[in-house]
Amino acid sequence: MQIESLFNIPPAARRALLIVGDTFAVLIAVWAAFAIRRGEIWPELLTEVAWLFPLSVAVVIPTFAAVGVYRPILRYADESLLYTILLAVSAGVLLMMAAWVLLGDGLWLRSFWLICWLVLAALVSGGRLLLRRWLRRRFRRTAARAPAIIYGAGEAGAQLVNALRYSAEFEPVVFVDDNPRLWGSVVLGLKVRAPSKLPRLIAQHGAPLILLALPSTSHHRRRDILETLAGLPARVMDLPTLAELTSGARRIDEFREIDVADILGRDSVQPNDALLRARVTGKAVMVTGAGGSIGGELCRQILPLHPRRLVLFERSEYALYAIEQELRAMLANMEHSHSLGSGCSPARGGAEIELIPLLGSVAHRRRLQAAMERFEVRTVYHAAAYKHVPIVEHNPIEGVQNNVFGTWRAAEAALAAGVETFVLVSTDKAVRPTNVMGATKRLAELILQGLAGESGATRLCMVRFGNVLDSSGSVAPLFRAQIRKGGPVTVTHPEMERYFMTIPEAAQLVIQASALAQGGEVFLLDMGEPVRILDLARRMIRLSGLTVRDEAHPDGDVEIQFTGLRSGEKLREELLLGTDDLPTEHPMIRRAREQSLPWPQVRDCLERLATASRHFDYPAVRAILREAVAEYQPDNGIEDWVWRAMESGEGSEDRGQAKG
To answer: Among 167, 168, 232, 180, which residue's Cα sits nearest to residue 202?
Structure first.
């Protein structure tokens, strides 16, 4: 019989086979008890009580079934099966003793029952263990599984090995751990080795994969570990995060790419719970651009803080649908966890969180204002913006409409609706911008600073930070995709540097900064040290188990190509316009002291910018941006596709007329 057909036997047939085996075990246990007790192969007494054989089967087998011996799938059974077997054997032997007493023979030969119990327990449990081992070994032979080295012999590593024993893809072959006290020991049948042995272990086992089982290790320590693993001929992957496991998004054996935050070694600061809740808990909150990278993460961070209502405002239908589905799943998990924990109403304080998805553009002030008023919005996080530098450079008027006028309309709607706090999510590209995207974001900051001087009730503030890891359009997902294809990995310039922060950390800090706002402030997030993009690309290649192909290593796996700076790009970004910033209650949030423009001057620029945009007057749009944002120093011409096509067409017409 082939192993596949054995695995595919119907459950009823598998149970029947086990019952037949247990029947023989019961008969052997009764015979062995008499034979051992009397010291004979077939004692005469056994002939007199031959009725005990069918009686024992009739008593023990139903007892096994009642206790649950036949419920587990044997290949996946754990040590709890042994406890079940011992309980079932004990119950079966006690019932046999009771039947013996009821038949009037008393409790003579008491040692017989002990021997019977020992033999039956050994046969049933030993038989199950041998059968389980045989099934697992045959399964492993039939599945082409890749050897995997587990880095971390702690609790997470043990759980991972148990999960991989049933995996059709990977087979754990050895543990590696930093703790010298574990070296040479055996965990779940696997030896624990020192990290220095990794090159030999990879060659010995032919392991193409190293799995990190270090969920509680800091990013800084993980970076040091990843540095030692970089360059080894094995791909490095990580366990799912605790949040992914608890939410059910991933199983423990569903591995993920190495987090770029681990490569960079950036550790986040524990959030201040009071600051997190100040502008959110019990309030109606709106997030514009809710379907984007930052907007979506803001929603994920806000929901566990229990707002009274969360309004999602998004112009993309699919993005709105996706974030709504994700948040509703989060709500269901929150309600389920709360009901299990307290046995009462799911949401905080017994009130459910209302989730309202709204489709619309931030340029539509009336719709925004109506939504804020009807849903009694008290805090707005304005994350709606175009942020991709080259795309906005080639579509400048659309960038102005969304980033500038969208912010203006949203802020005006908030003021008219009596919103308490309005927070603009800004960018380091707004500091001394060389591109349209950065100039529009700086003008958006000037709008809020100008309005803050005119308004009294609504606190208007801005939070400025650098690149967020793994956001849409960032380098990390692009590099991963290029590495999977075998390269080349494209880097614009060997000296290009950027500040980086994880999306969850950025969202948390934006929420906390909103609690510090008094009106008109620009808050700066501590981004740490800038990262050279070339170094990031090299690390990601090496941690994929590949080598960089360059002049020194012409036989490497993946080439890095330099494509040159794109329109409007800078080699290095800044966070501060001036040189003056002040600390706040949070160690990762600074308050900038920057010059602003009076609102009448800003408004005049906006009105002229609106007129120029309506007439598609690209030179005027650029000139007004340069006037409003004094630091805007573009180093290229007008890049708009339509403008260039128009200019090219007019030139062709002029040449044609001249020839005519």
So the answer is: 232
Distance CA 639, CA 400 (A): 14
CATH superfamily of 273-628: NAD(P)-binding Rossmann-like Domain (3.40.50.720)
List per-block mean pLDDT (blocks of 10 residues) for the chain, which spans 660 residues: 55 78 85 79 74 84 82 63 82 83 65 84 82 66 74 86 75 89 87 91 89 79 81 80 53 64 67 89 95 93 94 96 93 73 47 90 94 96 93 94 96 94 91 91 94 84 82 76 86 85 86 89 82 86 81 85 80 66 81 86 95 92 93 86 78 47
Cα–Cα nearest to 412, from 451, 462, 375:
451
Break the chain into its structural domains and give their ranges. 3-141, 146-258, 273-628
Question: Alpha-carbon distance 574 to 660, whole Å?
Answer: 54
Of 17, 2, 11, whose CA–CA distance to 131 is shortest?
17
CATH topology for 146-258?
Rossmann fold (3.40.50)
Specify which residues 315 forms β-bridges with: none
How far CA 501 is from CA of 57, 233, 389, 467, in Å, comes to 68, 29, 18, 6
User: 242 is written with which tokens?
Assistant: 């605790």
Beta strands in 15-117 (DSSP E): none
Look at strands 558-562 and 548-549 and give their pairing. Answer: parallel
Task: Please tell me the pTM assigned to this model.
Answer: 0.69
Which tokens hold the place of 83? Answer: 């406890």
